[in-house]
Amino acid sequence: MQVRIAEQCGFCPGVRNAIALARHTLQSKGRVYCLGPIIHNQDVVNELTSMGMKTVDSIDSISEGTVLIRSHGATKKQLQEIENKGLTVVDATCVLVKRVQKIAAELEKQGYQVVIIGDRQHPEVQAVVGFAEHVQVIGSEEDLHNLNLHKKLGVICQTTQSPDHFAEMVARIIKNGFSELKVVNTLCRETMHRQSSAIELCRQVDIMFVLGGLHSANTRKLAELCKKCNPNTFHLQNWKELDIRVLFGKRVAGVTAGASTPDSVVQEFVERLRQFDSLTETACPNET
Length: 288
What we know:
12 strands; flat; single chain; Cobalt-precorrin-4 Transmethylase, domain 1
C-alpha cells in the first residue's frame, strides 16, 4: 500500500521538552511525582512510570520530594500549595500555555471579564482558569448565556483549538453584544500547522489515520477536522487497534499524529501499512 505522511505531525516542541525534563529529573532524582499525566499518551506515561515517575491527582498525596508540572500547566493555587509544602518543583509547562496564563491574569488586571474558548474539562483550560479570579469558559454556543453582555470582554483561546472554532465563537460573542471587546490570539502555531497539513493530506488519500491518545484534545481535533473532509478517517492509538479489513480496496493511505504521539508509534504504523500488499483479504485483523 502507498502511504503518505503529513508534513507536520507527532511530538511538538512543548511535549518533547516535558518528556526530556521528566527523563532528566528521573535519572537524577530516581523518584518524581507528576501532577496528572505528563501528556495524553499512555505509552509514554507507562515508560516514565517504569523509570520511577508516579502520577497523582492531588498535592495532598505528596509529603516530600520532587513534583513535575506537566505540559498542560497547573493553577496558581496548586503552585502555591506545592511551595507551602516545601516540595521541589520541576516546571514542564509548555511556554505557550504559560503565555495564555499570563495573558488571562493581565486581562483581568486591566478590568476585562476573561473569556477562554475551549474545553472546560481539559487540564490546560483548568490551569488557565486558575490564574484569574473569574473566568468564563465557552466551549460551544450553549455557553454564551453565561456572559455579561454589557461587560468589557477579554477573549483568549485554548492553544489546541482550531482557528475556525475560535473565529466562530468570537463571531457569536460579537453578535451577543458587549461594551468593549479585546481578542488575543493564543492558538498554538504548531497545532495550526498540523491541522492544515492533515486536512491537505486527507483530501488526497483513500483512507486517513490519525494516531494519538483518545484523551488528547489536539489529536481528537485532528481526527474531527479530517473526518469532515474524508469520511474514511480513523482515530487510533497504535497499530494494535487497527482492523485491517478497513484497508481492503484502498490504495493510498494518509497518516498524521497528535502532538503527544511518539515517533515510534508513527513509524511502526507506517511500516506495517506499507507491508499490507503482502496480506490477503482473508487475513485476520492485525495479522502480520
